[in-house]
Amino acid sequence: MTGVREPAKALLIDLDGVVRHFDGAIDAAIEDRHFLEPGAIFQAAMEPDRYRTLVTGGWTRAEWLADVGAALGLTESDVDELARYRGYLDREVLEFVREVRAAGIPVALCSNAPRDLADDLVQLGIAEDFDAVVNSSDLGYAKPQPEYFQAACVAVRTVQRYCLFVDDSQRNVEGARRVGIAAFRWSGHSDLPYLKAALGL
């Protein structure tokens, strides 16, 4: 990480891959039933045009999965199974977020997500765990676009040089650094002591 010479005054943290994770067993079971290649569902879901539509407000999560299902020839019950699963939380990361907020440091959840992201946060029980939610679908800009990061800093009322951004995507980390935000690529729980130090905890 570069750019933090004194403790950061706000935390910008990614959702998927950091706070929330997905078990691939559900995808794998559906792929097996339909004789699809392993990873076919993820590949279809992340197809560039489809993903861009999702994260800029064009679809809800259910609409996105329905389109993925249609592309792969999945049944309605398969798509429903995918839609019901909301992933699981990393409790240690969530405790870190709560510790940061308890110290008076604002935290924004930063996600490239469908327009109904709020529903996921409610179902996961974390809707009240962040001072702001910066959803690409609300902005029309997605990480790593500079406009996204500028909006995230506004959301926590903190200038770029005093924000710390954490994401599991190197592309997004580099995008944040380009606009003057100290950014760190998440690799696991062993990163937490470093991040706490960067926030003066």
Automatic annotation (TrEMBL):
<protein>
    <submittedName>
        <fullName>HAD family hydrolase</fullName>
        <ecNumber>3.1.3.-</ecNumber>
    </submittedName>
</protein>
<dbReference type="InterPro" id="IPR036412">
    <property type="entry name" value="HAD-like_sf"/>
</dbReference>
<dbReference type="InterPro" id="IPR023214">
    <property type="entry name" value="HAD_sf"/>
</dbReference>
<dbReference type="InterPro" id="IPR006439">
    <property type="entry name" value="HAD-SF_hydro_IA"/>
</dbReference>
<dbReference type="GO" id="GO:0016787">
    <property type="term" value="F:hydrolase activity"/>
</dbReference>
<keyword id="KW-0378">Hydrolase</keyword>
<dbReference type="Pfam" id="PF00702">
    <property type="entry name" value="Hydrolase"/>
</dbReference>
